[in-house]
Specification:
heterodimer; A: 110 residues; 5-stranded antiparallel sheet; 11 strands; B: 112 residues; mainly beta; 4-stranded antiparallel sheet; 57% strand
Amino acid sequence: QKEVEQNSGPLSVPEGAIASLNCTYSDRGSQSFFWYRQYSGKSPELIMFIYSNGDKEDGRFTAQLNKASQYVSLLIRDSQPSDSATYLCAVTSHGQNFVFGPGTRLSVLP
Amino acid sequence: DTEVTQTPKHLVMGMTNKKSLKCEQHMGHRAMYWYKQKAKKPPELMFVYSYEKLSINESVPSRFSPECPNSSLLNLHLHALQPEDSALYLCASSLAGDYEQYFGPGTRLTVT
């Protein structure tokens, strides 16, 4: 059974701080990793994807992948109240479908 | 443009009704998906179409019937649903199976 785990939260950070969201996965053959943001009552919105070990930056967001540790994280710099949402980690292997984690609820406090 | 559209936005139906959900994308994506999402849970995969052929049916009850008329369009036909089928139904598409998926806004379904 392929599993993706995330802390359910809520993770609370003050405005302007760095929010760090973590995700671990069980399938060592996983190749592609995705972060989605979902506001309450809305659909998931793709934030970032990462395929290779290391860091990938896009604006205030940085995804970090460590395949040896089976760990992927999302850092949000200068967190804003508008970043308050549930963040879903999704993992896939070649030819397989997405496996979603349960999501981490982030609350950015003004 | 990474837009996936879904209609209707909201749907209320009785347990004896027949209705359909529609999903459309014009990104040239060859994989399309139906997900069901309950409150405070991640999306749950229902069906996958790859190159207009049903490739995965995750043991979904037969009261849900998918259809892919062409590469841009995906339907989900609903019949004799149960109240526990009330959920947000999400459509997504991707270039191919391993690529990032783009979600539509969803249809909020209530079965009475």
